[in-house]
Amino acid sequence: MAGRAHKYGDHIDTDIIIAARYLVTADADELAQHCMEDGDAEFAKRVRPGDYIVAGENFGCGSSREHAPIAIKASGIACVVAKSFARIFCRNSINIGLPILICPEAVDGTAMGDELEVALAAGRVRNVTRDREFQAQPFPAFMLEIVEAGGLIPFTRARLQKAGARE
Asked: Model pTM?
């Protein structure tokens, strides 16, 4: 399924993704209403389920709070494709089940509003608008399992239930 690209530059920090004034809640739907608000006031109105964020270097730098990837995921973003991610944002994204891919060529080859398709397991980013395909490094299998399960907690619950069923 194709989604539109919402393109941003380098060093988009967690305060741009979700401003500190909204950290009084952990409600994902509430956070989604304010996602990217201080950097792109129209994002929450424009984004549709299945869309993508495409960004430059060091996406998600700043605070270590999980609110930022939660807000992105709850806004309907299918995957964030960036040139690089802040390390803690990367880990938090996997922990909450937000797909991310590092693919500088896809970022350079995408404009705001382009239609994209991402094959996460293969690490492929296809720009439908420009009829171009880019190859990212796919997730290792165990990380892909965590993301596909919806995050570390659902993944762990499922594994514990499966282990309990075998006893």
From this structure: 0.94
